Amino acid sequence: MTDNNDRIITVKNSLDMNILGDNISDITDFAVEKYEFRHDATLSSETRDAAVKETREALWEMVEKLKLKRQQILKTFFEKADETVNRVVSDMQE
Questions:
Q1: Residue 88 counted as domain residue
Q2: Domain count, the chain
Q3: pTM, whole model, 2 decimals?
Q4: pLDDT tens digits for range 19-38
């Protein structure tokens, strides 16, 4: 019997950070433009830059939280896989 506890697997990244970055930029720009449209106003460059900066930071914070959640989910996947294999093998040996 081979002990595979030292085996390392690579789980593919499910997020393309380039696409995500583009989406965050687009969403941020849209939010600023929507604000200007709804309030029939044009923001100053300084205000626009501040709104863009803080909005992007807020969205990237959400991405970091999602990455942590993903790690938790992957851990649960591995635990469920182990549990299922153990159950099936046990059932087959009875």
A1: yes
A2: 1
A3: 0.75
A4: 999 999 999 999 999 999 99
